[in-house]
From TrEMBL:
UniProt-listed InterPro entries: HAD-like_sf (IPR036412), HAD-SF_hydro_IIIA (IPR006549), HAD_sf (IPR023214), Heptose_bisP_phosphatase (IPR004446), Histidinol-phos (IPR006543)
Cofactor: Mg(2+); Zn(2+)
Catalytic activity, reaction form: D-glycero-beta-D-manno-heptose 1,7-bisphosphate + H2O = D-glycero-beta-D-manno-heptose 1-phosphate + phosphate
Domain of life where this protein originates: Bacteria
Name of the protein in question: D-glycero-beta-D-manno-heptose-1,7-bisphosphate 7-phosphatase
Assembly and oligomerization: Monomer.
Length: 202
């Protein structure tokens, strides 16, 4: 299958912050994995809008960060597209719903990038490859070093390390499963996205 480019269905403003560095005048950038971080995940994939269920506290966390000047972008593998489990319109409906829920709380979601490919397509965007993170960095005109990338799977952590992001693991989604095996040195661990927002907004 010809490798399609990673899909992006959103635009956002160009700001960033290197986690741990002095806070520059520019806004702060946080990158999130989707399934298992923002919404519940399933080994059967998230195949419909009805199956897209926000993790408690996640929508509020994104809204709180956004209102505090953080740019919150998303990088998500969506091999279910290549597998034919759902189509792009369904994926877009999930992301429209995410935006709607965050907007209802006065926040906004930044760029959402997805990898539509399957594991055997040899694309550059499927995590653990860092292509989507690089796409987000290009979009916002920023470096990635030290930027927190929050995921629930080992592939998320490895993608972060590939571009010198700060790997951050949440225990939601597949996080506990990921935590049961050795993690990359320096990985930060939080219960959930709400706890990350609490930390970043201290
Ligand atoms: O966590 P993000 O990247 O947002 O999305 C993960 C999903 O695309 C799906 O990724 C699949 O992995 P494979 O793509 O089949 O290896 C499985 O892990 C599913 O359970 C999961 O829902
Ligand atoms: Mg995930
Ligand atoms: Zn891809």
């Amino acid at each position: 299958m010809a490798a399609r480019q990673a899909g992006q269905t959103d635009v956002e403003s160009p700001f960033s912050i290197r986690a741990g560095a002095p806070l520059p005048a520019l806004q702060k950038l946080l990158i999130l994995d989707r399934d298992g971080v923002i919404n519940e995940d399933s080994d059967a994939y998230i195949k419909s809008l009805a199956e897209w269920i926000p993790i408690p506290g996640a929508i509020d966390a994104i809204a709180r960060l956004s209102k505090a000047g953080w740019t919150v972008a998303v990088a998500t593998n969506q091999s279910g597209l290549a597998r034919g489990y759902y189509d792009l319109a369904t994926l877009d409906a999930m992301h429209a719903r995410l935006r709607e829920l965050v907007a209802e709380q006065g926040g906004e979601v930044g760029l959402i990038v997805h990898c539509p490919h399957g594991p055997d397509d040899g694309c550059a965007c499927r995590k653990p490859k860092p292509g989507m993170l690089e796409q987000i960095a290009t979009h916002y005109g920023t470096e990635l070093a030290g930027v927190w990338f929050v995921g629930d799977s080992r592939g998320d952590l490895d993608a972060a390390l590939a571009v010198h992001c700060q790997p951050v693991l949440v225990k939601t989604g597949k996080g506990e499963r990921t935590l049961s095996k050795p993690l990359p040195a320096g990985t930060l661990i939080f219960d959930d996205l709400a706890a990350i927002a609490d930390q970043l907004l201290l």
